[in-house]
Amino acid sequence: NTFFSCLISPVVSPARLRPIKLSDRTRDGFSIKREIGNRAGEAITLNNIGRVYDDLGEKQRALEYLQQALPLNRAVGDRTGEATTLNNIGRVYDNLGEKQKALEYLQKALPISQAVGDRATEAIILAGFGKVYSDLGKKEQALDYYQQSLPLLQAVGDRRIEAKTLYRIASLEKSRGNLLDALSPMQKSIAIIEDLRTKVASPELRRSYFATVQDEYQLYIDLLMDLHQENPNQDYDKQAFQISESSRARTLVEQLTEAQVDLKKGVSPELLTEEKQLFQALNIAEQQRLDLLNKPGGFSENKLEIIKTEIKKISHDLQTVEGKIRNESPAYANLKFPKPLSLEEVQAQILDDNTILLEYYLGEKRSFLFVVSKNDFKTYELPDIATVEGAVEEYLKKLKNPSFTEISEGKALSEILLGQIETQLQGKRLLIVANGKLQLLPFVALPFSEGEEIKPLMADNDIIPLPSATSLAVQREQWQKLDRAPKTVAVIADPVFKADDSRLGENAIQISNSGDLSKEESLLRNSCQDFERLPETAKEAQEILALVSDSQKFSAMGFDANYDTATNTQLKEYQILHFATHGCIQDNPRLSNLALSFYKPDGQKSENSLLKLQDIYNLDLNAELVVLSACQTGTGEDVKGEGIVGLTSGFMYAGARRVVVSLWSVNDTSTSELMGDYYRQMLEQNTNPIAALHQAQLKMWNTEQWRSPYYWAAFTIQGDF
């Protein structure tokens, strides 16, 4: 409970990164300590509660609890606790912008920590002084305190705060124009971060920790690009590109590496049983949530909150168990995770003469575009993230409007993103790596000028978004070990969602129509509750299946489009796996899902009706292509430093070479049209899946009925080319 710990968030669960409430257990424990007269324990608990409220942004409540803890620390003679509490009060005042009050409390805390020999707290207080003086613009004093803090941090082994202190030293030196003096502490800070993240076994916790240190990577890239401007022949720009790669999709890369081994082999049966039970509990809780949301006549918000709390608890327990499994796993212990690719490795392993990598790094003050071809490398400066994302949001709003057709209105955004390199792009395949809201932009719909004519970028370029260049290299290594699947396509479509579905025959139950959904809304393939039948998905499936001989295809429609089918190991025999149904993206990525049949032919409800992300990770596929013909399947939780965590990453882990997903709620009829032509391009014309998608989209663009990008631009394809 120290002032500086706010500056370097510990490895925490995703739940800690969202608003939480103090648990009844915490309050009960506090009450018990007070009742039995455990004043030392009471002080510690008050201090902890104050810290929680500070983390939640409730600064005044934080001060109330911390000010209650302080006299108790003094009354029981806990001088270490007193220093800690003073330090935490200083932290709150610093966060409130009351710098002089923060200094006042830190000045009280420092001599106490020195007197009791608490070097760890002393180091943190000194670093706290550094931060406050830095905020006050007193750079010399700030540096002095940081330099005093460093050897103490190293002596007590507090590497997280050491990394943050080195980062802040680098930031100060850079702000003073001392670029080379900033370089060494910045390199040391990143080296510590890189080491610390490898010690976190749980992928989710690793992602959470990595998200807290993205400012460090941003500063490092910015520093290297400043050095490149001063010394253009020293390859600082190449180093900046590698740091950009190092800051992206690291957990996905490691998970793709894990997918090549059996992590559960050699793990205790008790731990595996606990994991299975938690998966089952999570499924039950999520089904209870859905049943409550779909309850006729409405539902109790209180009951919903209870279920949501239970889901969070189970998810947290599951993260813990998954971490234990990795720690026990002999296979995990022997894994060698790949390092992020260097510029030269990207050019050698990823690119050919017809392919260009456009890697965007959006920063707070300025952004960068790294353009990599087989034999060339250039960098360009772009506006800050707020400017870029503002332009992206404005254009996305237009793209999602069915009446919008004038893509020339995206010219300003296109100029920002491509204006400096337009002449380099003609006829090239473009690999797009981005961060922030740029990940949600369909580059296929950016306007591109050809003489006086304006066309979508896809008219001249195949476009492939990627989490990172390194992730593609790992995928390729995985695919080189697999034999091609023997059969062509498996289609899962048109599930039975409602008790009054006519396919239930005499087992159908008449239910009242809530009337909440308009006709247009009911024809969108997006829903997390109140699933409506999508009539065009059956037509879409039949058109695809008609292109393939009986021996080369598999069909699961209606009742057969169920959980058991979607998780059947026989799907590994098919090169293409096509889902046509509702998609649901949740705040908790584990629960994002594809909706499958809710009912059996006899009218009984299916035990499992949702193919969740956690289920997808457990699939064993050998698919050249997975198509998720549903809404928003390319979206998910955008985690800083990782990118979008959702269904795409799950299918890649499961063994998909490429995944087609959508970026917004798509229309049922237009999607059916697009998919029919997409598969004709692939299966009749033998067109590459990437080029085939763009050809199908271009055909819709050239058709008056479907000209609006709303109908076709949502679909994008990720993976190998």
Name some characteristics of this structure.
single chain; 721 residues; alpha/beta; Serine Threonine Protein Phosphatase 5, Tetratricopeptide repeat; 4 domains; 6-stranded mixed beta sheet; 5-stranded mixed beta sheet; 27 helices; 12% strand; globular; disordered N terminus
Please summarize what this structure is.
This protein has about 725 residues and is of the alpha/beta class. It is built from 27 helices and 18 strands. It has four domains: about 230 residues, Tetratricopeptide repeat domain (Serine Threonine Protein Phosphatase 5, Tetratricopeptide repeat, Alpha Horseshoe); about 60 residues; about 130 residues; about 180 residues, no CATH class.
Domain count: 4
Number of helices: 27
- For this structure, the CATH topology of the largest domain is Serine Threonine Protein Phosphatase 5, Tetratricopeptide repeat
Q: How do the strands of the widest beta sheet line up side by side? A: 9-8-10-14-17-18
List the helices and strands and how they pair.
Elements lengths: L23 H12 L3 H17 L3 H17 L3 H17 L3 H17 L3 H17 L3 H18 L2 H17 L3 H20 L4 H9 L2 H17 L5 H11 L3 H9 L10 H25 L7 H28 L1 H4 L9 H7 L5 E7 L5 E6 L4 E6 L2 H15 L11 H8 L10 E5 L13 E4 L2 E4 L6 E4 L2 H11 L7 E9 L23 H4 L12 H11 L7 E6 L4 H4 L7 E7 L2 E2 L8 E3 L14 E3 H5 L7 E5 L7 E3 L3 E3 L1 H8 L3 E5 L5 H16 L5 H13 L13 E5 L2
Parallel strand pairs: 1-4, 4-7, 8-9, 8-10, 10-14, 14-17
Antiparallel strand pairs: 1-2, 2-3, 5-6, 11-12, 12-13, 15-16, 17-18
Helix pairs in contact: 1-2, 2-3, 2-4, 3-4, 4-5, 4-6, 5-6, 6-7, 6-8, 7-8, 8-9, 9-11, 11-12, 13-20, 14-15, 18-19, 22-26, 26-27
